[in-house]
Amino acid sequence: MIKKIFKIIILYFFIYCHGVSSSENNIYDKIDLFGEVLEKINKEYVDEINQSESMDSAINGLLQSLDPYSAYMSPEIFNEMQTETSGEFGGLGIEVSMESGVVKVISPIDDTPASRAGIKAGDYIVKINNIQVQGKSLSEAVDLMRGPVGSGIELTIRRRGEKKALKFNIIREIIQIKSVKSDLLEENIGYIRLTSFNENSEKQIKKEIRKFEQNKKVKAYILDLRNNPGGLLSQAIKIADFFLNNGEIVSTKSRKKSENRKWFAKEGDLTNGKAIIVLINYGSASASEIVAGALKDHKRAILLGENSYGKGSVQSIIPLKNNGAIRLTVAKYYLPSGKSISEVGVSPDIEINEETDNFRIKTETDNQLNYAIKLLNG
Predict the structure, then answer these.
(1) pLDDT, tens digit, for every residue of 279-292?
(2) What is the DSSP letter of 82?
(3) In this predicted model, what pLDDT tens digit does every residue of 12-36 receive, in sequence order?
């Protein structure tokens, strides 16, 4: 019975969306096979299963087979995403995605429990409080990492270059992000660190640049985009525009021609052509890669550090009739050179890797920043 009902629903969906064509005839065989597998599981599996949860997992599996960023959100998870927390629950301060069935850290956020504990971009979370992550959806894994402020959590991490798994005990906190930080280095270098691209980032950066421009000693800038997981496309475009006089910043390409767009810089470089070094690493993703890539392609800045993450795609949240939603990749970003960022990232002009395991951004162990300062002061 389950098999028949499921087959009718799926057939209706495909006919409604696509119509019937000879090239899609074999899809009916696959649908029939899926229904048969579902029925066998329901009858023969050693434990009784929750059929609703099984269908959710099937939907999520379909979406995650497309790319690491597409996913299904149940009504409960979608509602949580839309509702601001009241301070009852805390987090770790990491941006994550799913890769090969394991949670992958895109970037730890500055001044959060995760960054202070030593979690790094590219780490794979294999266990959460001794619970295997393999086989769980990204939403389920994120739920496991949530908890009351002040409560502890143990993450088991696999890291490139490390033979043994690493364990981190972290205390959850309310995550408050200040996206822009600045400092005057060596009395002549304006240092701007951007940790995310939120609604106010461009206003804050503009304010800092104008402050530095009033100081006649400032001769160069360092724009630090390390461990910046991205954010709003509109902010990336505006911030890149601050350093350019003209030319293309980024373009998006989609299956729908109406969604193919290009954005261009307006006249007016806020820094008046001063030298710029942009710091990037594996934790620089999405909007960070747009800014870094545009400045590199226009030869407006020198990129220093490590290859960026490679998240060059646009996700759209599409609500569903059950009050849930899907996060679906609808377009890809392309740099002015025409290159795609997806899975490739942006490569630095000068490759400088982190020297030690104790590396922390903007501390004595920050060999990348130290190299940039020496380079600008020649």
Answers:
(1) 999 999 999 999 99
(2) H
(3) 445 444 444 544 567 777 778 888 8
Q: Do 337 and 188 belong together in one domain? A: yes
Same domain as 166, residue 191: no
Contact 225, 368 (CB under 8 A): no
Q: Please give the positions annotated as active site.
A: 286, 297, 311
Strands 180-185 and 189-194: antiparallel
**Confidence band (pLDDT; 50, 70, 90) for 53?**
confident
Distance CA 126, CA 116 (A): 20
Cβ-proximal residues to 135 (8 Å cutoff; 6+ apart), any chain:
101
H or E segment at 367? helix 367-377
Cα–Cα distance between 276 and 281 in angstroms, integer?
Answer: 17
Residues 110 and 136 both lie in one domain: yes
CA angle 236, 105, 304 (to 5 degrees): 50
Nearest to 239 by CA among 211, 285, 281, 271: 271
Q: What is the CATH number of the domain that holds 131?
A: 2.30.42.10
245-252 long-range Cβ contacts below 8 angstroms, 24+ apart: 245/269, 247/298, 247/336, 248/294, 248/336, 249/290, 249/294, 249/336, 250/290, 250/293, 250/294, 250/333, 250/334, 250/335, 250/336, 251/333, 251/334, 252/314, 252/331, 252/332, 252/333, 252/334
